[in-house]
Amino acid sequence: DGLACFRRLEDAGHAHTTLDTGGGRAATEAAGARWVNVVLGNLKRAISGVYHAIAQGKYARRYLAEAAYRFNRRFRLREMLPRLATAMMRCKPCPEPVLHA
Hints:
By secondary structure, this protein is mainly alpha-helical. The protein has one domain (4-99). The chain has 6 helices and no strands. It has helices spanning 7-11, 25-28, 33-50, 56-72, 77-90, 96-99. The two termini are 30 Å apart. 0% of the residues are buried. The model has no long low-confidence stretch (mean pLDDT 77).
C-alpha cells in the first residue's frame, strides 16, 4: 500500500515495499494483492468498527496486537475464549499506570 501512513514503518526501521497498481479493478488483480487487500480491509474494519475514536499515538500498538491475536486464531474460534481466560489467569498483575503508559 502506498498510503503515507506506512512511511512510519520505514521511519521505525522496518522494510516496506510499495506496489503501485493504480486504481480500480486492475489494482486487485496484481499478484498477491488480493490477500493483502483482504487483511488490510479486515484490520481497518476491526479497528474502526470497535474503536470509534482511537488514540493512535498511545494505543495503536495494542489495537494492532489485538487484531493480530484474533487474526492468528480465526480458524479456532471455539478455543479462543478458553485460551484467553487461561492466559489472563497465568499472567502477572499489571498496575494501572503501566497500562496507561
